[in-house]
Amino acid sequence: MGRGRAAVAGSGPDQRSGSVPCNFRRAAKWASVTRKAGFPDPHFHDLRHTGNTLAAGSGASLRDLMERMGHDSVRAAMIYQHSTAEADRKIADVMDSKIASVVPPRRVLTERDHR
């Protein structure tokens, strides 16, 4: 993680005091709160992963993801760049529109044209 982010994530020394912060799960009453919300015992990192995967799917660049997550390496940010059928469709649609903008439309042949 980048500097200053460890304290936010609850996994390193507090930047102000240098002391190790309290356990996030205990402080947030994580088990009780998530159980009441209908999500029995999810890991906090699962939420982080889901949020960053959604950000990547929305078109965030690797640099954007790295900044969001406090990562210093492209390799770490690449974890969230899952390929999906939806992403493949968007890519194909953009390519189609770019090609269509420079290639004149062709007349579609009908069965009558083949006689």
From TrEMBL:
PROSITE patterns from the UniProt entry: TYR_RECOMBINASE
Keyword check for Transport: no
Top-level division of the source organism's lineage: Bacteria
Residue ranges constituting the Tyr recombinase domain according to the UniProt record: 1-93
Listed Pfam families: Phage_integrase
Lineage of source species: Bacteria, Bacillati, Actinomycetota, Actinomycetes, Streptosporangiales
Keywords: DNA recombination
Cited InterPro entries: DNA_brk_join_enz, Integrase-like_cat_sf, Integrase_catalytic
Region (Disordered) residue spans: 1-21
The protein's name: Tyrosine-type recombinase/integrase
The keyword DNA damage is assigned to this record: no
